[in-house]
């Protein structure tokens, strides 16, 4: 058993060095978005779908990154380029997805506020 650990020490350290920070990030995102939702509920907000969606995207991003970085040690060096390209693609897709959700929610909020203001002004004009 000791020989196994001595022969595979680098692989074990690599695995721990990838998995442990990934778990910490995953838990931090999970707890963080729940705290954000709690604070927003106390302030009176109701719609949290975009926060949950961003948290899901980030969690999936972390899981995929961890899997790809673990496979770096398990595959031959000739496949490193392929893995690097996949990491770049996943990073790009995750960033684009997060910004799409943020800007979509922002524009939706702005349009809803504008509509509510116009309805309020219209009702005030009718009453006067």
Structural description of this entry:
This protein has 128 residues and is mainly α. The protein has one domain. Helix content is 90%, strand content 0%. The chain has helices at residues 2-7, 9-43, 49-74, 80-127. Helix 2 (9-43) runs antiparallel to helix 3 and helix 3 runs antiparallel to helix 4. The longest helix has 48 residues, at 80-127. The protein is elongated. The N and C termini lie far apart (87 Å).
Which characteristics define this entry?
4 helices; 128 residues; 90% helix; mainly alpha; elongated
The gist of it:
With 128 residues, this protein is an all-alpha fold. The chain is 90% helix and 0% strand.
SSE order, one letter for each helix or strand: HHHH
Which structural class do the helices and strands define? mainly alpha
**Radius of gyration (Å):** 23 Å
Most strands sheet: none
Percent of residues in helical segments?
over 70%
- Total number of beta strands: 0
Strand content: under 5%
Low-confidence stretches: none
